[in-house]
Amino acid sequence: MFSLLPQAAVSPLANRPPDRLFLAPRSPRRRSSVVVGALMSESPQKTADVSAPNLCFPILVNGCTGKMGKAVAETALSAGLQLVPVSFSSLEKPGRTLKVGNTEIQIHGPSERESVLSSVSHEFPNVVVVDYTVPDAVNGNAELYCKLGLPFVMGTTGGDRHMLYKTVQDANVYAVISPQMGKQVVAFIAAMEIMADQFPGAFSGYKLEVMESHQASKLDTSGTAKAVISCFQKLGVSFDMKQIKQIRDPKKQLEMVGVPEEHLSGHAFHLYHLTSPDETVSFEFQHNVCGRSIYAEGSVDAAVFLFKKVQSKAEQRIYDMIDVLREGNMR
User: Fold this and answer.
1) Average of pLDDT values for 292-321?
2) Torsion from C-alpha of 43, 255, 274, 288, nearest 10 degrees
3) Can you give the pTM of this predicted structure?
């Protein structure tokens, strides 16, 4: 068996001064405005202890070669979890390794995925997989995890989400699937969903404008933006997802969005602007994240949550981050 153990009209947004587009609410051009904003700047040096006391289990991070995957691996180690010394890449480069803390990670290509993961399931029977790969790999990876009976946290956005849920449901495998892993952002989305459920149609007739900015390497449209927009749609707003203003140009992010230069390679800025039919009232919702630690900590929280569900043989198998938040596992 393969050994895994280590060897020895004019848009209201357009009128905002370019350097203030996201960072601060502007004064309303007309008569009344309500602004809700949040700025979360995450320092990579500060990592919370997200594990329960004396809780240790193996965790495999698929996508350690990416910045997000590596951040999750580092957070898992800081939380006292056992990092399985393997990961995967879309490239076939035999012998490639990556060091995370004191753990030497062996990076395997696509052709080795099934054989290596099969060995992982035997050598680390309590393993939880965390996936931070690319949108095109979401469904294929999920099918393989399900085939091998591996519980997993899907942090990667994109792919065919309907098929993803069906795959997991058919296989009866434990999984946490969420377009957003940041704790506070998850709470914001939960609040939006409560508002949408309790006050449907409250914003009927309002015009919605949405802008999201992420690092240039993010290929798909923000899943968080889509989740929030779905809430606004329930509240009576007419909006097509194709209307989302997606910004990936670093120059625009610096000059128009106001992203700090040091965070161009890792940020998530979102702005939702609502205007009443007669343009006398406007609402603005804003959440800006610099860095990746908020997502890394949430992902490890989700892995801890899922491990407990597996151990308790919970009847429910598919969860999202709101389930994790409600259970109080987010520190």
Assistant:
1) 96
2) 0
3) 0.75
- In 3D space, the residue among 268, 318, 325 whose CA is nearest the CA of residue 301 turns out to be 325
- Dihedral sign, CA of 195, 200, 203, 206? positive
Task: Decide if 218 is catalytic.
Answer: yes
Report the distance separating Cα 192 and Cα 232, nearest Å: 8
Task: Clarify whether 162 is annotated catalytic.
Answer: no
Alpha carbon distances (Å) from 286 to 11, 23, 157, 221, 227: 17, 9, 21, 17, 14
User: How do strand 267-275 and strand 207-214 relate by DSSP bridges?
Assistant: antiparallel
The residue among 87, 85, 78, 89 whose CA lies nearest residue 58 is: 85
Residue identified by tokens 């704790």 is 183
Tokens of 39: 């700025």
The active-site residue out of 214, 270, 287, 309 is: 214
Q: Indicate which residue of 70, 183, 218, 273 is catalytic.
A: 218
pLDDT digits (tens, 9 = 90+) for 239-286: 999 999 999 999 999 999 999 999 999 999 999 999 999 999 999 999
Which of the 8 DSSP states describes residue 52? P
Question: Residue 164 class from Cβ within 10 Å (0-12 exposed, 13-18 middle, 19+ buried)?
Answer: buried
Q: pLDDT of 67-111, one tens digit each?
A: 999 999 999 999 999 999 999 998 877 789 999 999 999 999 999
Structure tokens at 108: 């395997």
Encode pLDDT of 102-139 as tens digits.
999 999 999 999 999 999 999 999 999 999 999 999 99
3-state secondary structure of 201: coil
Which residue is listed with tokens 């198998």? 317
User: Please, which residues bridge with residue 108 across strands?
Assistant: 88
Tokens matching residue 179: 């377009």
